[in-house]
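Supplementary Note 2. Why include the ligand at all?

Several targets in our set were suspected to adopt different conformations when bound, so apo predictions alone were not considered sufficient. For every target with a known small-molecule partner we therefore ran a joint prediction. The input for adenosine-5'-diphosphate is given below.
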Amino acid sequence: MLSLNINMKKNPKLAESSTEKSQTPDEDFPIVGIGASAGGLRKRAEDALQGKTEEQQELSIRDARSLIHELQLHQIELEMQNEELRRAQKELEESRDRYSDLYDFAPVGYFSFDKNGLIIEVNLTGAKKLGVERNFLIKKPFSLFISPGSKDVFYLHLRQVFRTGVRQTCNLKVVDKKGVQLDVQLESLSVQVGNSVHCRTAMSNITESKLAEEVAQEARIYAESIIETVREPLVVLDEDLKVISANHSFYSTFEVTPDETVGNLIYNIGNRQWDIPALRTLLEEILPNKTQFNDYEVSHKFQTIGQKIMLLNARQISQEVIGTPIILLAIEDITERKKLELLHLENERLITAAKARSEFLTIMNHELRTPLTSVIGYSIILEGKTQGELNEKQGFFVDNILKSSKHLLDLINNFLGLAKTEAGKQEMIFEEISVPDAINEIFELIKENAIGHDIILRKEFDPEMLSIQADRMALKQMLFNMLSNAIKFSKKEGGIITVSTKRENDMVKISVADTGIGIKEEDIPRLFQKFEQLDSGISRKYDGTGLGLAITKQLVDMHGGKIWVESKYGEGSNFIFLLPIGGKKIE
Ligand code: ADP
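The joint prediction is reproduced in C-alpha cell form.
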C-alpha cells in the first residue's frame, strides 16, 4: 500500500497537474517537476545563465555538470519508479479482475436494486439463475422474475431494507426465463453509492433445501401417522428425556393433555406421575449402554388412573437417521391381562378345589348316609318292639339314637344339597308351575305338623297370579323350608301362618307370615348365612341345622329372585320372596 502511494505521488501525470505544488517545502522529488516539464526547466536555466557573470558562468559549468549528474540520477530513479508504478498498476488490474471474477462467479446471485426494485447491477450467477444475459437485466424491474404470489414479499423486503438499513432476509419464488420456478432466499443490505442508496442483495437458491425440508416433513407426518395408529401408548423423547411427541393412546391411557406433555421432561408429566424409579434406571442407565430394552415390567400407582402394570419397550434411534438421537418408548398396559392371568390361576385352583369337594361329597354321601340309614332303620325296628320289649332306659336310649340319627341325616342331606347348589351341580329345570298347586302340596305335607303345634294355615292367592316358570323341586323346597320354620318358631300357644301370593309387574311375591317368636332387628343380617342359628347356645330349644335359609336364598338366587324378612321380635315374622314370572332372565 505504501509503495502504491509513493508511486502515485511519482506518477508523471499527477506531477504534471501539480507543477506549482512542486515549490512547496515538502516536495520530496523536485525532479518530478523537472522531468515532467523539461521545456520550463530549460527556460528557467537559460534565464539564469544570461544573468550570470563570467565567473559565475565558470562556476555554473561545474554546477551544470553536477546538475547533469543529478539529472541522470533522477532520470534513472524516475524510470525505476515508473517501472514500479506499472507493476503496481498491473497488480491492481489483476486484483480487480480477481475480485470481479469472484463477484461474477460467486455461487450466489448478487444484485443491486434501486428504491423501485430496478436492477442496477447483477453478477453473472444472478443472471444465469434467471436464465438471461446480464445486460438484459440492467435497469429492468426484478419483479419481472418474481412469481405473482411472491411480488408483495419482495416489495415489502425492499422497503424494509431502505427503511431500516439493517440486514433483511426473505424467502420467495422466482421464475426464470424458461418458466422454471425456484425457491430463493434474499439477504439484503442498504449501501451508500455516491449520492444514492442501493439495496445490495445476495440471492441463494434454496429449492433443494426446501425440497429436503418438504421430504423431511412428509416423512415426519408419515411417521407420526404410524405412531398415531399404534394402539399402545407411544412417546418420543429427545436425548434429554424431554417429550417430543406422544400418540393419542398415550394421552387417553394416562389422562394427560398434549400441552402438559410435549416439551416436558418425562418425569414431570402429570404431576410427576412418571417419576418412576424403575423407569429412571432404564432410561438413564440401561438405555445409554444398550440402545434398547424389551418387555421391562413396571408396576406403578398413578395418581389419576391408579395401580398399573406395564411392559416398557424402548429403542434409541441412531443419529444418522434423524440427526439427533431420539428415544421411542412404547408402553403396554398389561394390568387387565395380569388380572385375567390371576383370575385364570384362581379359576384353576377353584376347579381343583371343586373336584376335590365333589369327590368328598360322593364319599360323604355314600360313607355317611348308608350307615346312618341302617342306624335309623334298626332304631325304628327296636322302637317298634317287634324284636322284643324294651325296658324304660332302653326305650329312652333308642328314642335318643333315632332323634340324633335323624338330625344327623337332616344335616347331611341339607349340607349335601347346599354343596350341590353351590357347586352349580343342582341343575334347574324351568317349567310352568301352578303356584297355588305347589303351595297346596306343601300344606298337605306339613299339615300334621301344624296341627301338632296348634297352628292354623291360611292361604291368600292373587287370582291374577297363577303360574310361573320355575324349577318344581326348588320351588317346593323354598316353600317347605319357610313353612317348616314358621311352624318351628311358633309360640307355645300356637298361632296363624298365612301364605299369600301377589303379582308385582313381571314378578310374583310369595310371603309366609307367622305369628311366632319373631326376630330381633340386629339378628336379621345374619339370617341367610350358613349355619346361622339365632338360638345356638347350649340351651337351644329348636331343632335345625342352620342351613335352611341359606339353601332357600341360593335357590331364589338361581331363579333370579330376591328374598328378605320383615319381623317384629315377639310378634312374628314375614318371609317374602320375589320370583320372576317368566323364569330366570339370561344376563
Ligand atoms: P334352622 O335349621 O335353624 O331352622 P334356618 O337357616 O332355616 O336354620 O334358620 C336360621 C335361623 O333363623 C333359625 O335358627 C332361627 O333362629 C331363625 N328363623 C328362621 N325362621 C324363623 C321364623 N319364622 N321365626 C323366627 N326365627 C326364625
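DSSP finds 19 helices and 17 strands in the chain. The radius of gyration is 59 Å. Comparable summaries for the other entries are listed in the accompanying table.
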